[in-house]
Design brief:
This protein is of the alpha+beta class. The chain has 16 helices and 13 strands. A 5-stranded mixed beta sheet has the order 2-3-1-4-5, sandwiched between helices. Strands 6-9-7-8 form a 4-stranded antiparallel beta sheet, with helices on both faces. The longest helix is centred in the last third of the chain and has 23 residues.
């Protein structure tokens, strides 16, 4: 029986706290996974940025990627490694590069998701080019922005057709505000989207492989207060619906790690934003929910590395479209979409793997998140995000939220004393 090492790379940007937690918990797990007569061990390494030969071998089985959506050098190395070396990466880099919110809205509308009515409008301004004037002169048509606003109804939201982090999102209450906001929108291509009002619940669901975590969310709050600590705010049926929606979206676009935002109105959930394939992962945003992200990353990456999970060579939308064409209710279609997603994420195999090889993860993570190293990781992220005079205050705040998580986790695990 040979000892075989599986290597996991972390492709990082400004990430500070979660890699520290991930690396240390994997080290403490000290995994030895029997596999086809061998024993699998796991190493974690941070991926560097440097020139590379296109034929240079990639020695990682898995890369957790936090850069593809904005940093081209790392993205192109990852694409090369997928094509030439069989690398598995969170997420499909071609999909992240090309599938913006516009595409995600259109695809899920076609699958029958109750996405709010949405218009795309040309930008107010353009980047100068030799072909611009003849193109606009021949083909651009004058349009009445007020008429579009009236058709959608007020209030509505103006937001970029791409991007994220609530940048450029404006609630519009009347035609005058619509025109003024459009005049100031510059070169951005914008969506106008009907508001779902009134609504009684805003949910953000994080999907990581077949794992989901549902959080009550307040986008109007400060970043460190948006993810709320709330329990039992969804019925079992509602949770199944949110999970099915999230995994359908993620499987459709080849995203291992993505989040979906949905509003509940009249008892139904309306997805409003779900092209977020690099979700919040820092303690300064997630606080109480931070340990879930770390553990979910560990479970899915170890499973993918151990089984040498293969990247899909294409997104293969046909099975979803076949379901969409059936004469069924959306609820029945959604159940079938979720079945496709579970097959693509190998949910049953993943859960069996975790039960057999990662059963001690909860205990190891519980101990780690009470350690000095965990507290130092929190402080380091706070130092990077907050002014000096607030560092002690917010370090204690986020550390306290993690200790509250440990209390609820102890209750869940049946720990005493």
């Amino acid at each position: 029986m040979a000892e075989v090492t599986r290597r996991i790379g972390l492709s990082l940007g400004a990430d500070i706290c979660w890699p520290i937690a991930y690396e240390e918990i994997v080290r403490r797990l000290d995994l030895r996974v029997p596999h086809e007569g061998d024993t699998l061990r796991f190493e974690v390494e941070r991926v560097t940025i440097e020139p590379f030969d296109l034929r240079q071998r990639c020695d990682y089985e898995v890369v957790i990627d936090r850069l593809t959506h904005w940093f081209s050098t790392s993205r192109e190395w990852i694409k090369k490694s997928v094509l030439m070396d069989g690398l598995y990466v969170f997420n499909n880099p071609w999909s992240v590069q090309s599938m913006e919110k516009q595409t995600s809205y259109c695809a899920m509308m076609h699958l029958g998701f109750p996405v709010p009515d949405t218009w795309l409008v040309p930008p107010k301004e353009y980047e100068p080019s030799a072909d611009l004037e003849p193109t606009l002169t021949q083909y651009a048509r004058m349009f009445d922005l007020g008429r579009i606003g009236a058709e959608l109804g007020y209030p509505l939201f103006m937001k970029p057709y791409d991007g994220g982090a609530w940048v450029g999102v404006t609630k519009i209450d009347d035609e005058a505000q619509l025109r003024a906001t459009y005049e100031g929108s510059g070169k951005r291509v914008m969506h106008l989207q009907k508001a779902i009002l009134p609504h009684d619940l805003f949910v953000r669901c994080i999907g990581l492989g077949p794992q989901t975590h549902m959080v009550r969310y307040d986008p109007a709050a400060a970043l460190h207060e948006r993810y709320q600590v709330a329990f039992d705010f969804l019925s079992a049926e509602e949770a199944r619906t949110i999970r099915a929606m999230t995994l359908t979206i993620n499987a459709f676009f080849g995203w291992d790690f993505n989040s979906m935002e949905a509003l509940r109105a009249g008892g139904s959930f309306h997805p409003i934003d779900f092209a977020n394939p690099c979700p919040d992962s820092q303690v300064t945003a997630l606080h109480y929910h931070f340990p879930w992200i770390v553990k979910a990353n560990i479970r899915w990456s170890i499973f993918c590395a151990a089984t040498r999970r293969a990247m899909r060579p294409n997104l293969d939308w046909a099975p979803f479209y076949e379901v969409a064409a059936l004469d069924l209710s959306f609820e029945d279609k959604l159940e079938r979409y979720a079945q496709i997603a579970d097959e693509r994420f190998e949910t049953a195999r993943f859960e069996e793997f975790c039960d057999e090889h990662l059963a001690h993860l909860d205990e190891v993570a519980y101990d780690f998140f009470g350690s000095d190293l965990a507290r130092d990781a929190v402080r380091r992220k706070v130092v990077a995000m907050f002014p000096e005079h607030e560092v002690d205050q917010f370090t204690e705040h986020f550390w306290g939220m993690i200790q509250f998580w440990r209390k609820t986790e102890a209750d869940r695990l049946g720990k005493t004393g």
